Amino acid sequence: MSINAWLLPLILFAPAVGALLLTLIPENRPDLVRRVAVLVTGISLAGALHAIFHYQTAAGGFQYEVLKPWLPQLGIQFHLGVDGIGVVLLLLHALCGFTGVLISYSIKQRVKEYYIFYLTLITGVFGVFMSLDLFCFYFFYEMAVIPMYPLIGIWGSDVKEEGRVKYSKQYATMKLTIYLTLGAVVALVGLLALYQWTGAQTFDIPTLQAMLADEPLSTAQQRWIFPLLFIGFGVIAPMWPFHSWSPMGHAAAPSAVSMLHAGVLMKLGSYAIIRIALPLLPQGAVYWLPWVASIVVMNILYGGFVALAQKDLKLIVGYSSSSHMGYVLLGIACLTPLSLTGAVMLMFGHGIMTALAFAIIGQLYDQTHTRWLPDLGGLAHQIPFIAGCGVIAAMASSGLPGFANFVSELLVFMGGWDKYPVQIVCGALGVVITSVYMLRVVRGTFFGPSKPEFEGHVHDAKTPFEKLPFIILVLALLITGSWPGPMLRLLESSTGPLVERILMNEPNTAPDSIQVHSPAKPGHASASNEHSEMN
Amino acid sequence: MVEAHSAAAAVGATDPALLALAGKAAWAILLTPLICAVAILLVGIHRKSFAMAAAVGGLATSLICTLFLFFQASQGHLAVPFEVSVTWISLGGLSIPFGVLIDNLSLIMTLVVTGIGSGIFLYSVGYMHDDAAASRYFGMLSLFAFSILTIVLSTNWIQLFIGWELVGFCSYMLIGHWYAKPSAAAAGNKAFIVNRVADFGFIIGILWLWSVSSTASDDRTVHFATLMARLPVLVESGAVPVATLSVIGLLLFCGPVGKSAQFPLHVWLPDAMEGPTPVSALIHAATMVAAGVYMLCRTFWLFEMIPSTLNVILYVGAATAFLAAALGFAENDLKRILAFSTLSQLGYMVMAIGLGGPVAAMYHLTTHACFKALLFLGAGSVIHGTHEQNIWKLGGLTRSMRWTSLTFLIGSLALIGFPGLSGFFSKDEILVLAREHNLPIYLLATLTAGMTAFYTGRLWFVAFMGKGHAHGHESPPVMLGPLFFLAGLSVVAGYIGIPAWLGEHHEAFHWDVALTSTAAVAAGVTISWLLYSKRAIAAGSLVRALALPQSFVENRYYIDDIYTWYVQNIQQKIIAAGCAWFEQNIIIGAVNAVAALAQGLGRLLRLFQTGVVQTYVLVFVAGVLWLITRYLAVR
Fold it and tell me: Cα separation of B431 and B444, whole Å?
């Protein structure tokens, strides 16, 4: 039997099996606990790499599929599979999860329980990205949300302002859990309505999609369900004004959880919109997305300005995440193959970048016991390696060419320009704001004269093992950013057909706004320049 | 996975073997510095001599390849323009190549970058010899070389923009090289952000231009050659209105306003002098700041079609040339005087573009790169030898640093346009253009030439001639060598036929323009000599007489203050703090209010949960009685 048949279950269950194994390991063996965690997330990472390199771009569609009946009486199946979008997000999650485990070596308290929750969280997120059954999807989603609550509540830290507690970790974790569950419930209402109105007796996404393509729901029904799904999932994305759980959640969480949370968990919302809301409710999407395009400008600009006013490093990066997820939502709202490809690429780029940023802040916080910007400074003297990574993260975040973020933002802008030029201009303005607060962080943290209180106390990542998570994340950003072709082709094989299907459903669309896709399109041929297609 | 392919434009006479070789050389020019940068940053970060050797060797390789192509092209063996490229992004409806475009324009600019750059790299070996972070410095320098070559050799707008952003990053890192100094860290931030503001307009311009580049949505392009062929047709047919194109042109011009530090976004360049002096010479005098002018020359076919935008360019350039020259009068820092001079000369170049003379602009760019790099390296030699950069604390350098002084003098004379030196010829071209097209601008430009002579004279008489006795030691040969090399270039660059190479047939020499400007220069030098060397006029009384303009100039027209005020009071205290207040009180407040409501309801319901069994029984019995009465009533 080929590896493809059990690749996804391997990726999915390796961390789950790891979590089970950990329950059997005695508490006083923290090193063994950590090694098991590294091993199982390493297996998942290897699996995700295998999946992305062996995905058949030319064939497209869902691959590595696994289909087992689960609760046949209710039409529920255990159905896994990934398309070009899913396989990229699997890699994102595998990278963040693996580096997160490495970063978590600094956790010293209740190590075993920590990793059990952490691996459960990882399993849940993997499950979401590969579920092709709505029930599976929902199941894994809840599986990802629940461990967040203890992870932040027990291993997190309070968010302080001027030395006083601004948000306690209990408040932050309570708010996060309630918000995420509430979002999921709103989406569930939409999903149940969908289930009811189609009368399909199945939760299988491809089946539903095929059925709805033949006999779509009425426009009125679609317009009712779409906002439920979009807002429900949008809360997780996080869409303005339902974003306030996210920055403080990032800020209160321990580093590795922030990495997963900002790096991957937020992408679940936008992923669910792409996987469920768009293809199943095309007319609802076409009706509502113009509104969305305007609302997300608030994400971008407002999030940027709030970040500008923060002095806690994690809150700055937290608000910056909510600002940058605005680009992802904008890319979705523009609904062109280019912009949607850019949006997914940005989910990847932003995920890696934020994971890197939180890994760095975690290192700083562990050693200096502060993330309050005015208290920091001159750390490049003590920790040149981390400082270098900090500059890289800041530059990636500000969309410097060479990093994945630049490519993806460019694609969102190019793809959306025809439809929403004003929103795109606002988006481009957001890039300027990003560089203002990011450079302020770099300057305030790393530059300036060396501070005596850090001398001798703060140590750089020295051994290759300590450097490994940073190197992995930086390389991921650089490789996909400087040679984006392969990943873009992978994404396009899924985003192109998706957008095409949606726009074909819309009777009023002018023909020139449908960007026709052919797998091999000759480049611009001219006397001076002949680009041959390279496959 | 991806195969490179090369395509020749005007294949014609070129021998295929030579073409293949030329393609390899073209890639080598661009990629060698990148490979060296990666090698330095990965393995050489703690190996100083490796870093130095790799950086210098890398750029020298690029120089050799450039010279090879240059001679092949000038001998007529290689037909230019020719282009090699790979497809960087290819998605439905979008194709972005990345490659190398070799033509006369890019060759001359590549020669400037690699030639002058090699000299400066070599000089850096001496200058940064004792710096603990020299490896990082050379890594960034190599990365910079790659980035600027990405701009220069670019085949399309997006590649140009990529290089544009990367040079900004390298500039940021190199200005802030001595990051322990708060002023250096602040200057790096300022340079990056000011350029980012300008690039905001630039990228919008590129997006817009791309979107109008074809009537079919899947046939759009950012490719220079395709656009050059297509745009006139589109404009003619009315598919692209001239008004739209003018706005696009203005947006694109935002890029050079930032990168080439034109008013009112010039504020970052004087502060950028916080970086090591070779960086100022290479990035903030010879190459990066000239990239804006280069871009305008590269895409002049676009600006040619939109006279109204050209007019804006003209006035921005002229204003920069004049206002920055005036700033040079009141500055006391050796390097900052040179920075203002750079601003002013960049203004000349932009002005030349506005006058419709890309050849004149490119000509001045080339000569300026030689003599301004020379002046900065000379200044670096002075700073290296004396550890002082206030001109009033220097003086008498002609005695202690003879060779540095001699080469600095040659650079100064070239800058002011001393007859026979390179600056004279290139400035003359611009003045001739101005006289033909716009008389007020011509007068302003001639006045500016006189002002240039004045501040340069002031610098020379105070810092080098003066009675001061700055004890300096002459710099080592590794630093003097590049000085002699650049001094030689500053002398000969006017004679090697740059305008002809760029395709302009030299017209008869304009004696009247040359004589007028020489007179202005003579006047400027004489006044500065009287003021600062002979001291025939008391500078103090002059300053008192000109108190108002003096205060304006000393405060740099208050432009920095206006920006600081905006950032601190409007952006930070009103917009950002306002959003943060809204977040805390309205958004988070509303969420908390909902939570409080739920909690309140819970409290209310809790009142019924008394725990007293008698109460429950009482309520239960009352309920049953009520039901019974209802039942009986209905019966």
Answer: 10
Q: Is B87 helix (H, G, I), strand (E, B) or coil?
A: strand
A410 touching chain B per CB within 8 A? yes
Is the per-residue pLDDT at B549 higher than 90? no
What one-character DSSP code corresponds to residue B566?
I
Q: What is the pLDDT of residues B224-276, one digit of tens each?
A: 999 999 999 998 888 889 999 999 999 999 999 999 999 889 899 999 998 89
* Residue B373 CB partners (closer than 8 Å, separation 6+): B116, B119, B120, B281, B282, B285, B286, B486
**Three-class DSSP category at B97:** strand
Residue from A123, A122, A108 nearest A154 by CA: A108
Residues of A in contact with B180 (CB under 8 A): 378, 381, 447-450
- Give the position of tokens 């819309």: A506
The domain ranges of chain A are 3-534
Kindly report, residue by residue over B447-458, the tens digit of the pLDDT. 999 999 999 988
CA distances from B394 to B34, B278, B463, B467 (A): 40, 20, 5, 9
CA distances from B232 to B157, B302, B630 (A): 18, 9, 91
3-state secondary structure of A81: strand
Q: Which of B87, B203, B210 sits opposite A428 (nearest CB)?
A: B203
The reply to whether residue A492 touches residue B576, judged by beta carbons under 8 angstroms, is: no
Average pLDDT over residues A436-441: 93
| Contact of B184 with B275, CB cutoff 8 Å | yes
Phi, psi of B7 (to 5 degrees): -135, 130
Residue whose C-alpha is closest to residue A376's, from A314, A319, A432: A314
Residue pair B254/B353 in contact by the 8 Å Cβ criterion: no
Distance, CA of B5 to CA of A148 (rounded, Å): 51
Task: Give the three-class secondary structure for A526.
Answer: strand
- Give the list of residues 6+ apart from residue A279 with CB closer than 8 angstroms, or none: A205, A209, A498, A501, A502
User: Residue B11: which pLDDT band, with cuts at 50, 70 and 90?
Assistant: very low
- Quick one: closest CA in B to A511, which residue? B217
The Cα–Cα gap between B225 and A527 comes to 9
Instruction: For residue B103, give the chain A residue with the closest CA.
Output: A528
Q: Check if the beta carbon of residue A514 is closer than 8 Å to that of residue A500.
A: yes
- Residue B256: is the preceding peptide bond cis (ω within 30°)? no
| A523, B90 Cβ separation under 8 angstroms | yes
For chain A, how many residues are written? 535
Surface-to-core class of residue B355, CB atoms within 10 Å of its CB (0-12 exposed, 13-18 middle, 19+ buried): buried
* Chosen from A447, A479, A518 to mutate, greatest number of chain B CBs within 10 A: A447
DSSP letters of A2-55?
-HHHHHHHHHHHHHHHHHHHHHHS-TT-HHHHHHHHHHHHHHHHHHHHHHHHH-
What is the distance in angstroms between the Cα of A17 and the nearest Cα belonging to chain B?
37
State the pTM of this model. Answer: 0.91
Q: What tokens were used for A22? A: 């950990």
**Bridge partners (DSSP) listed for residue A161:** A164
Enumerate the H helices of B493-612 as residue ranges: 498-501, 511-528, 539-545, 547-554, 559-565, 577-581, 588-606
How far A352 CA lies from chain B's nearest CA (Å)?
20
Q: How far is CA A343 from the centre of its chain?
A: 11
Residues of chain B with pLDDT > 90, as a percent, come to 45
